[in-house]
Specification:
The structure is a single chain. This protein has 130 residues and is α+β, with helices and mostly antiparallel strands. Helices cover 42% and strands 12% of the residues. The strands form three sheets. The chain has a two-stranded antiparallel ribbon with strand order 1-2. The protein starts with a strand and ends with a strand.
């Protein structure tokens, strides 16, 4: 357990893992999230700037919630984020469906290659792994 200052209110707190904010700020942030979520539900046509202004939340925080997939834009929305890999417009998360699939396939290939039995070569008592 590490003692550090909260990045929002600068108070000392015991940090274990996760965001570097105290429990009071986490609670306030969660209340703001619920407020934003309800506002979006009541006003589905508003853009991200209007939501941020109405709820007194930074646009950066709203975008963070969208990247974390806690909030999402509708498919017909003109507002969105860009895929971190290819730059195409997405409505939630960090990657578009195609890039996420490609990354998953790459990781699966690496996992399978790492778990194959090594080939033994050599004669006598000395053996070499390839």
């Amino acid at each position: 357990m590490e003692v550090m200052n909260c990045s929002r209110c600068k108070r000392l707190f015991n940090w274990v893992t996760g965001e570097k904010i105290c429990s009071n700020c986490k609670k306030e942030l969660e209340e703001k999230f619920q407020e934003v979520k309800q506002y979006i539900k009541d006003n589905p046509g508003n853009n991200i700037n209007e939501v941020a202004e109405a709820c007194d939340v930074p646009v950066k925080q709203i975008k963070k919630w969208v990247r974390e997939e806690r909030l999402t834009f509708t498919d017909d929305s003109l507002v969105g984020l860009t895929c971190e890999r290819c730059g195409v417009m997405i409505h939630s998360g960090k990657f578009c469906a195609q890039c996420a699939g490609n990354l998953e396939n790459s990781l699966n290939g690496l996992y399978q290659a790492a778990h194959q039995a090594p080939k033994k070569t050599g004669a006598g008592k000395m053996r070499f792994l390839e």
